[in-house]
Design a protein that fits this description.
The protein has 196 residues and is mainly α. The chain contains ten helices and no strands. Helix 1 crosses helix 2 and helix 4 runs antiparallel to helix 5.
Length: 196
């Protein structure tokens, strides 16, 4: 069990990451300085370095925070005693809800090859591959159990993740649909693609 101090540091790091993501989303990664992130949090630039090495480190941890939450969601979904159809529906909804609730962080996760050096890129691609593999697992299970029609798993997974990840380009929290409504709609239409 983590100590109170560790939990306090983890909470502060998450607060910094959310603020950094908001500034990155507003000004662009290259247009943002550590001073601006620190100012948003009423911190000194020096105190920021206690938590993160530099701007690249901040961006990397923004990405990993969301990927860890996404992978945790998928671990819970895939290990649940429910049908493959229900798993895919839950997976789609979980992705949409995370994307709409964490819009700023999702926006800075785009095109990792353009933002990260080899030091971080390997870890990022590894976590993305792990996440995608959960969709493959669900799709394979659905085919095996005859819940889904015969499909090209890789292509269907890319179509699903492409649709889910595109939401960050157009979603507006003040728009006509809530994140929950979008999750329902996406799940409804994406499942039609695979159901027998």
């Amino acid at each position: 069990m983590s100590s109170f101090k560790e939990r306090k540091i983890a909470k502060k790091k998450e607060e910094i990451l959310r603020s950094a993501a908001a500034v990155f989303a507003e000004k662009g990664y290259h247009g943002t300085t550590m001073e601006e992130v620190a100012a948003k949090l009423l911190m000194t630039k020096g105190s920021m370095y206690y938590y993160f090495k530099n701007k690249d480190d901040l961006l990397f941890h923004c990405h990993q925070m969301i990927m860890n939450k996404s992978i945790q969601n998928m671990e819970e979904i895939t290990s649940s005693p429910i049908t493959a159809k229900e798993k895919l529906e839950k997976a789609v909804k979980a992705h949409i809800l995370l994307a709409t609730n964490e819009k700023s962080i999702f926006m800075v996760m785009d095109k990792p090859n353009q933002h990260f050096t080899d030091e971080y890129l390997h870890e990022i691609l590894k976590s993305r591959t792990k996440y995608a593999a959960y969709f493959d697992q669900i799709l394979y299970e659905g085919m095996e159990k005859k819940e889904f029609q015969s499909i090209d798993i890789k292509m269907v997974r890319m179509i699903i993740l492409g649709a889910l990840n595109w939401i960050q380009e157009w979603y507006n929290p003040e728009g006509e649909k809530t994140g929950e409504q979008l999750a329902e709609t996406f799940a409804h239409y994406l499942l039609k693609m695979v159901l027998s």
